[in-house]
Amino acid sequence: MTVGSVPRHDQSAAAVELSFSRAEWMTLLAESPVTEIESHWRALPHPPFQWIRRPEYGSAMIRGRASGTGAQFNLGDVTVTRCTVQIGTGEIGISYVMGRNKRHAALAALFDAMLQHEKTTGQDVVAHCIASLAEGKRRRHQDIVRETRSSKVEFTMLSRGGDDQ
């Protein structure tokens, strides 16, 4: 175990945590509630960093597909906040989060840079945080599915007996 790493009871869990690709962890960071990211941030040693692009607002065009599989069309603009940082070891972290939350964008960029550093050094302290965010996302999704199923309504077609007109 490396210095500063989180002790593991199950080595297979550590292997799962390191399996996230950069695209997957960036998605998790962008979609996770900022309160969850903040709680992980407080538990970690903070690396020195410099701003390359301070958090700033912008917009992005989102696209949709007719019936989910048809031709793409421009649905509209959404507000995004973007940020770029460089940590002391040289890794550059970027983030794009939907909405107007500069703190969320800054933390996501810092986590991105720290995860890149861990991927090259073989540590898994921050990767543990990403696995926890993934578990939170899975639980939130299950809650939505459970709530949706509880409101399901079965519709049946009633036919008139003997009335063939």
How far apart the termini lie comes to 80 Å
Largest sheet: 3 strands, antiparallel
Element string (H = helix, E = strand): HHHEEEHH
Structural class by sheet pairing and helices: alpha+beta
* Overall strand count: 3
**Shape, principal axes of CA atoms:** elongated
Q: Which strand order do you get reading across the main beta sheet?
A: 1-2-3
Regions with pLDDT < 50 over 5+ consecutive residues?
Answer: 1-17
Q: Roughly how much helix do the residues carry, as a percent range?
A: 40-55%
pLDDT averaged over residues: 85
Radius of gyration: 22 Å
Q: DSSP helix count?
A: 5
How large is the share of residues in beta strands? Answer: 15-25%
Characterise the protein shown here.
The protein is of the alpha+beta class and 165 residues long. It has five helices and three strands. A three-stranded antiparallel beta sheet has the order 1-2-3. Strand 2 and strand 3 form a beta hairpin. Helix 2 packs antiparallel against helix 4 and helix 3 crosses helix 4.
What labels would you give this structure?
alpha+beta, 3-stranded antiparallel β-sheet, 3 strands, single chain, disordered N terminus, 165 residues
Topology:
Blueprint: H1 11-17, H2 22-31, H3 34-42, E1 49-65, E2 72-87, E3 92-98, H4 102-121, H5 125-150
Antiparallel strand pairs: 1-2, 2-3
Helix pairs in contact: 2-4, 2-5, 3-4
Give a summary of the structure in a few sentences.
The protein is of the alpha+beta class. It contains 5 helices and 3 strands, in the order H-H-H-E-E-E-H-H.
